[in-house]
Amino acid sequence: MVIIRHLHIHLYYETAVLKYLISQSKRLLIGASIASVVHGACSVFLLAQISSALTAEAPDRMEMALIFGGTAVAVMLSYMVANILFERLGQRAHAELRSFIAKRVIASDYRHLELIGAARVQSALSEHCTHVAEFFVSFPIILTNAVIVAGCLIYMALLSWQVFLLAVIVIGFGSLGYHLAHLRAIRHLDTAAQEQDRLFAYFRSLTDGAKELRLNRDKRVAFYDNVLGKSIEIVRHERTFGMSLFIGSASWGNFLIYAFIGMVLFVLVGDVPDRALIMTGFALVFVYMVGPLEALLLNIPRANLAQVSADRIDEITRTMAASEEQTDGLSPPSLQSIKLQGVLHRYYHEQSDELFTMGPIDLEFCPGQITFLVGGNGSGKTTLAKLLVGLYPPEEGQIIFNGTVVDETNRDHYRQLFSTIFSDFHLFDRLLETGGVDLDNEGNRLLAKLHLQNKVKVKDGAFTTLELSQGQRKRLALVVAYLENRPFFMFDEWAADQDPVFKEVFYREVLPELRAMGKAVLVISHDDRYFHLADRLIRMESGCLTLNSQAAMKDKDSLASATPSVACSNAV
Ligand SMILES: Nc1ncnc2c1ncn2[C@@H]1O[C@H](COP(=O)(O)OP(=O)(O)OP(=O)(O)O)[C@@H](O)[C@H]1O
Fold it and tell me: How many CB atoms lie within 10 A of CB 136?
């Protein structure tokens, strides 16, 4: 009873995500909905036939039996078609939603993605997606049963307008109760959804922090009791409370149904001549209607859960701004010069209300030049590298590439200039480089060059294993960088995990070779033994460049006595 109004709410109160999904599968949804409506209508028609068969005369029975049989087959077929189509719709919605989020994540500005965080993306891709897909499974149940209930009400109106009027009053009461419960319940489901995003971060700590948790019993207990267990409990509690409110209102609806039936049977139908016949007719409708009504009352909460998840996905994907134009299909850029002019980036730390400012910085890079970027921990080296390679757009100042200002229209193209190995690099198990080289041959040649030929091979465009030490995995990343063969190489503390022998290889063979190939190279390093090998050395302190020495470093003592050539306007 409550249903028609709430069905209306759910059909029209769509989030952008549901709208998108519905628009993607419009035809399938229309087909499945028609099959559901046909199923509901045939079911009511079947009921009408059962009712009239009870009082039918013998000569009509044969014809009625045929119609009954035909309707029963139609009920079966429409049920099958509706459910298969909705199952397909559910699976399709799930897949569409996953690709929708994945594409949004890929296109999102890097800084936005950093701010959203991996846990929220994971939560959206897994649990929220599943809830939304389930909407398409509960939708046919809601639709079919709504049609059956509506049909029953019409049938009732034909039997008696007084009964129909009473039904409308009961629907009003039911809706009010449901609405009040709905407002409260949604708040709890929302809280559960927010907590679930945090829970996914704790799930990651379970695997990422596996070593620490095993080595420290107190930490393990505290992590489970105060962090993970607490979060699991909050999600359980909030969701149970929210869903219980819905179930409470469903029970209220249920009570109203029986109150309604009682009123009709004992109050409205008085001592009329055909009492037994009229009672039989009503009893049949009631019995037939109770099942669909209950199914409706139970499935609407599931649709609400989907709604909350869809809102959550919506919120996450909406903040994934994609301000840059994708520049697929353009040929890779070549490098003449890169100029950083007054570039600046700020990090705001909400908890401590502190701001870290990097810049303003002026720098120039050209091909065939090796630049070392040095400085203490947290001085801003990686941040500068992220700005240089176009992962962060400068908040102030600009980057000029081959004489052209880098902006939203060409930043994606500009980024194709760089092969990078950040300290938190990621290795894809497949080699995704598409430079036209024979990946297997070239990959294996490079593996031999980096002394890894006995550990790992490239086979069918993939590394045979990634189960290697951190230093070896970094060498694999170097193989990938070589295969990319871009004009600019950026290494963020690459050599930190290498043994002394390979450090020598890196600084004395790999880097000079890259220079000879005409590559521009930026090396973030703490290896002061090798600083003198740089063509230029720049030092960062508290987000400012304090030294930009163009001269070749002959020894590190000359470095220590060098005067800063770049004024720091940001000194703290
Ligand atoms: N993702 C981030 N969000 C917010 N603040 C950040 C983030 N990354 C870095 N910071 C802030 O910026 C400062 C500089 O960090 P950055 O990683 O650039 O330093 P770094 O010189 O590369 O340090 P290290 O030598 O330890 O790698 C840090 O002190 C930190 O406060």
Answer: 27
Q: Which residues pair with 371 in a beta bridge?
A: 522, 536
Identical fold, 3-319 and 338-561: no
**pLDDT beyond 70 at 563:** no
The stretches of 353-505 forming alpha helices (DSSP H) are: 381-388, 411-415, 439-449, 470-484, 500-505
- As for the ipTM of the complex, it is 0.96
452-480 average pLDDT score: 89
Confidence grade of residue 155 (pLDDT, cut at 50, 70, 90): confident
Residues in the chain, how many? Answer: 572
What SS3 state is found at 401? strand
The identity of residue 456, as a single letter, is V
- Homologous superfamily of 338-561: P-loop containing nucleotide triphosphate hydrolases (3.40.50.300)
Domain ranges of the chain: 3-319, 338-561
- Three-state DSSP at 488 gives strand
Architecture of the domain made up of 3-319: Up-down Bundle (1.20)
pLDDT score of 435? 61
Calculated CA dihedral for residues 299, 305, 310, 315, nearest 10 degrees: 160
278-298 tens-digit pLDDT: 777 777 777 777 778 777 777
CB 138 within 8 A of CB 302: yes
pTM: 0.75
User: Does ligand 1 lie within 6 Å of residue 379's CB atom?
Assistant: yes
Which residue has the CA at smallest separation from atom 26 of ligand 1? 377
Establish whether residue 241 lines the binding site of ligand 1, counting it when its CB lies within 6 angstroms of any ligand atom. Answer: no
Ligand 1 centroid distance, CA of 371 (Å): 20
What does the DSSP 8-state code read for residue 465?
-
Question: Which residues are registered as beta bridge partners of 399?
Answer: 340
Q: Whose CA is nearest to atom 17 of ligand 1?
A: 382
- The residue to mutate among 111, 379, 425, having the most atoms of ligand 1 within 8 angstroms of its beta carbon, is 379
| Long-range contacts, 444-449 (Cβ 8 Å, 24+) | 446/478, 446/479, 446/482, 446/483, 447/479
Q: How far is CA 453 from CA 438, 464, 465, 527, in A?
A: 17, 11, 12, 27
220-232 pLDDT per residue, tens: 999 999 999 999 9
CA of 379 to the centre of ligand 1 (A): 7
> Among 207-216, 272-281, 397-406, 462-471, which stretch is predicted with the lowest mean pLDDT?
272-281
> Does 16 have pLDDT greater than 90?
no
Query: What is the token pair recorded at 121?
Result: 């993306």
Contact 489, 514 (CB under 8 A): yes
